[in-house]
Design goal:
It holds the Pfam family Lactamase_B. The protein is built from 7 helices and 14 strands. The protein has helices spanning 48-59, 80-87, 97-107, 182-192, 221-227, 237-248, 257-264; strands spanning 5-11, 16-22, 28-32, 37-39, 44-46, 63-68, 90-94, 123-125, 130-133, 136-142, 151-155, 158-162, 200-203, 218-220. Helix 1 (48-59) runs parallel beside helix 2 (80-87) and helix 4 (182-192) packs across helix 6.
Length: 288
């Protein structure tokens, strides 16, 4: 089994981990779940996090083949179009994006100019699809539950699980966003846990965990099966659903959910500027 070189970039403002995944036999790579920094109070974007990835890619003379999104994130803005402009690559996401666009197209009262067919992305993946990063093969697992369009990218001996599983001591992702389902997430996680025990798992977020003082993002299928506090040691579907739903009822909305959804459902593009060239995001009142 080929073992890709994986470099992680941690964004402390949103607890997001972005990854550069490289074919060890060549110069091809993919960027997974990049971050465009956004200061909500001032409405200003910043490209610090994305520039770090671009600098890394350029310094090593890598060829970016893919800009992969595990899903439409609700807690950070994607920098995929910004990185694409600088170093290329095709932007990919799951084909269930159409459901997500339909849901949030309504929430944000988008007009007919907002296409809900996923056409803002370069490629829509279905579960079971495969793709190449140079000589490296990637396989796509559809792993809904956190959102309807969530994907896990299995690349060589590494699985990029987005927001399905977190580190074993933190558990799993919330399932209370529109279209989320804790039972569905449990079923998706079982799919991931059928990968070989030694498969490296790279998670999309880390928030530390009680008793752990450092951030962490790499674990294995074997560790998840044995010790994940929500789904490990044979936890039942019923127990998981009860626990997950109760916990989700107590969680506040992510700080950047309103700007994130509007940008990420457009493949990381801002809404079209007005006739003066100014760009605006909406705040739906009492909708989320
Ligand atoms: Fe997420």
């Amino acid at each position: 089994m080929t073992s890709p070189e994986v470099t992680a970039f941690f964004d402390e403002a949103t607890n997001t981990i972005s990854y550069v995944v490289r074919d060890p036999e060549g110069d091809a790579c993919a960027v997974i779940d990049s971050v465009l920094d956004f200061d909500y109070a001032s409405g200003r974007t910043d490209t610090r996090s994305a520039d770090a990835i671009i600098a890394f890619v350029r310094k090593r003379d890598l060829r970016v083949e893919w800009l992969l999104e595990s899903h439409v994130h609700a807690d950070h803005l994607s920098a995929a179009p910004y990185i694409q402009l600088a170093v290329g690559g095709k932007i990919g996401i799951g084909d269930h994006i159409k459901i997500v666009q339909d849901t949030f197209g309504r929430v944000f009262n988008e007009g007919a100019e907002f296409q809900r067919d996923g056409s803002q992305f370069d490629l829509l993946f279905s579960g079971g699809d495969s793709f190449q990063i140079g000589q490296l093969r990637g396989d796509v697992l559809h792993t809904p539950g956190h959102t309807p369009a969530c994907l896990t990218y299995v690349i060589g001996d590494a699985a990029f699980v987005g927001d399905t599983l977190f580190m074993p001591d933190f558990g799993t992702a919330r399932c209370d966003f529109p279209g989320g389902s804790s039972g569905t997430l449990y079923d998706s996680i079982q799919k991931i846990l059928t990968l070989p025990d030694e498969t490296r798992i790279f998670v999309g977020h880390d928030y530390k965990a009680p008793g752990r003082n450092t951030y962490a993002w790499e674990t294995t299928v074997g560790e998840q099966k044995a010790t994940n506090i929500h789904v490990g040691a044979g936890a039942s579907r019923d127990d998981f659903v009860t626990m997950r739903d109760a916990r989700d009822a107590s969680l506040a909305m992510p700080r950047l959910i309103i700007p994130s959804l509007q940008v990420n459902m457009r493949a990381g593009q801002m809404p079209a500027p007005d006739d003066k060239g100014d760009v605006f995001l909406k705040v739906p009142v009492n909708k989320l």
